[in-house]
Amino acid sequence: xxxxxxxxxxxxxxRFKVTEWQFEPGAETGWHRHGHDYVIVPLTDGTLGLxxxxxxxxxxxxSRHIPYSRRxxxxxxxxxxxxxxxxxxxxEVVDDHIAHRRRATMERLMQAFNARDLEGVMxxxxxxxxxxxxxxxxxVGTRHEGRAAxxxxxxxxxxxxxxxxxxxxxxxxxxxxxxxxxxFIGTDKAGRDVDLCGCDVFAFDGDRIALKxxxxxxxx
Length: 220
Prior knowledge:
The chain is built from three helices and 15 strands. By secondary structure, the chain is of the alpha+beta class. The N and C termini lie far apart (74 Å). The longest helix is centred in the middle third of the chain and has 19 residues, at 96-114. The chain folds into two domains: 6-93, Jelly Rolls, CATH 2.60.120; 96-216, Nuclear Transport Factor 2, Chain: A (Roll), CATH 3.10.450.50.
């Protein structure tokens, strides 16, 4: 049996996990799947041997202090394929799962709006939620505070636009803030067509939306 690589944990908090992997010649990590995006920072020059799914293999040459990154989902067994000691730091972004879940909430919200599913829309909102609409008398537009007020405001949007579609949606999360951009194409109750771009800025309570703050282009 080949020797096992040694893992030394240097940092493990709510955002990052930093592990130093130390390999004697021939040492290996064993098969594993990466659950997070990560960065590798080589501490030595060296050559990695990589066992991959479907019986594939490859080698990767490391240069000291020259980092590289990989996405969540990589599956492999890593071996020191060189003749000398090898080490690197593995920096995992452990809060990416939170960002993935929040992005999924934003995607579900847009899908629910397009399906005119008011219950589905409200399922994306936190218990203590708010909606700041794009137009209104205040500097933030019109404030709708609390689930009942937010629900009524969303219902009014569906009522005002018998035909409505939020298209070309893109979603991004950075820390506690999310943003969706979209193109709204609809017809109001008077038969007027509307076609404009806008965005929503979100604040979160866990995985659900505590504040939906809307902005849109004004066409004139």
